[in-house]
Write a structure and sequence with these properties.
It is built from 15 helices and 19 strands. By secondary structure, the chain is α+β, with helices and mostly antiparallel strands. The model has no long low-confidence stretch (mean pLDDT 91). The structure holds flavin-adenine dinucleotide (FAD). The site of flavin-adenine dinucleotide has 40 residues, from helix 1, strand 2, strand 12, strand 15 and strand 17.
Length: 416
């Protein structure tokens, strides 16, 4: 049996971030994953600025190493929103985005990288950490709370005893369901299906990711994210509540858009499908949950922390993993692993991500109204200030707040 202070279950972004932060703090930990890396993870593969900012906080050297591996990622400078009336709104990630600026081009904010590659990069990072013992190919399925720690095991008598568990095993975590009592609620959960294509035409020259709010699938959306080597991640996402209510088969819906939508089908004329269509759940952070208990903390998707508007979960997984590692360090120092002590982790998540998650939930509700979306796109295209405002929205929570207030739309309408 392995004995450790901290055991992290899952080596996705959330688990790796916890391990990297613990390593920075000089605390030994064991990380266990059921997969053998490199492994795939169904995702849109979009890495926002938050991913880089969190890795920078853990250790800027990690970002430097990521920046130089060009083959696994594509630099992306913005996002194109396509409104239900099919008008485009192109928003650079930087408010001062200039497609001709070489200085901007040297410092991209966002990337698109297949999770097969990005997650493997993170795993390679934890493998080089002296304080991290990484064990792969072990599926943990038993969790027993004993007086002196958590005893976890698999079916083959592999056992670890830990003072604290950091639970990072993703959207389908049995620990979250059975121990932490987090049940899947259709209005706080989404489903997504993705496929990889080659040679989709009409991509933005600066690799903008594309979110298409097609009327028939609102409040869901269709996406095309450009990847290296002329490949693209193509998918569709929708609230689980809506999928059940309208009895939607997401794979069929995705194929239908590609084959029949007048604008999209033209862009897929020369395209080849290079993967299967695969779906997975997105536990959204639109409801506040208790993320800690005696001797454990839930991070990333295991704690339902995906942004309900954008579907972005990698950045929040990294941030929550880092907060949990800091809290584990404090608990070890105080020799206090009680639920009261670990509740400070919940407070950190609320401080760091809470406001943004709530605002995104409000924006998610607004996109049900196609006319509002059309209006916003029309106005923004004719107004540089509004465009800059939306660009800032990606990074400034206070600006997102404005988008949820009716007064914002009144001003847009009457102060043009
Ligand atoms: C279709 C779709 C599109 C998405 N698009 C985006 C996007 O473009 N950008 C973005 O930021 N987010 C996106 N997301 C969300 C993102 O994928 C997740 O938020 C992110 O992967 C969460 O990271 P994590 O580390 O919490 O979990 P995961 O990445 O799921 O990692 C969990 C790890 O735990 C391991 N594990 C599971 N069970 C066990 C067990 N019993 N024992 C041991 N190990 C175990 C798994 O093998 C895995 O490696 C998307 C999600 C979906 C479904």
């Amino acid at each position: 049996m392995i004995k450790t202070k901290v055991c992290i279950i899952g080596a996705g972004p959330a688990g790796c971030s916890s391990a990297l932060q613990l390593n920075q703090l000089g605390i030994d930990c064991v990380v266990i994953d059921k997969a053998i890396f490199p492994r795939d993870k169904i995702c849109g593969d979009g890495l926002s600025g938050k991913v880089i900012s969190c890795l920078n906080r853990i250790d800027p050297e990690i970002v430097k190493r990521l920046e130089i591996i060009d083959i696994i990622k594509l630099n992306s400078w913005g996002v194109t929103f396509v409104a239900p009336n099919r008008k485009n709104l192109e928003i650079g990630y930087r408010p001062d985005y200039d497609k001709n600026s070489t200085t901007q081009k040297s410092k991209p904010i966002g990337y698109v990288s297949k999770r097969m590659d990005f997650d493997n990069f993170l795993v390679e990072e934890i493998k080089r950490c002296p304080h991290v013992n990484f064990i792969e190919g072990v599926n943990i399925n038993s969790y027993v709370l004993e007086s002196d720690g958590y005893l976890i095991s698999d079916d083959n008598d592999f056992k670890v005893k830990a003072d604290i568990l950091i639970v990072a095993n993703g959207a389908h975590s049995t620990f979250s369901k059975k121990v932490a009592n987090i049940v899947m609620e259709p209005k706080h959960n989404a489903g997504g299906v993705r496929a990889y294509y080659k040679n989709v035409t009409g991509m933005h020259t600066d690799n903008f990711i594309e979110l298409h709010f097609i009327k028939s699938i609102l409040p869901g959306y269709f996406w095309i994210f450009p990847l290296p080597n002329g490949e693209a991640n193509v998918g569709i996402g929708m609230l689980t509540e809506e999928i059940s209510k309208r009895k939607i088969n997401l794979t069929k819906e995705l194929k239908k858009i590609i084959e029949t939508d007048p604008i999209i089908k033209e862009r897929f004329k020369e395209a080849t499908l290079i993967s299967s269509y695969e779906g997975f759940g997105l536990p959204l952070g639109s409801k506040k949950r208790l993320l800690s208990g005696e001797r454990y903390m839930l991070v990333g998707d295991a704690g339902s922390l995906i942004d309900p508007f954008t579907g972005e979960g990698i950045g929040n997984a990294l941030y929550s993993g880092r907060y949990a590692a800091n809290q584990a360090a404090a608990a070890i120092l105080a020799n206090d692993f009680s639920k009261e002590a670990l509740y400070k982790y919940d407070l950190d998540v609320e401080r760091g991500l809470g406001t943004e998650l709530r605002l995104s939930h409000q924006i998610q509700k607004l996109i049900r109204f196609p006319w509002l979306f059309n209006l916003l796109v029309n106005i923004s295209n004719n107004n540089k200030q509004v465009k800059e405002l939306i660009s800032c929205m990606f990074y400034e929570v206070d600006i997102r707040k404005r988008l949820t207030k009716p007064s914002f739309y009144f001003k847009l309408l009457f102060n043009r």
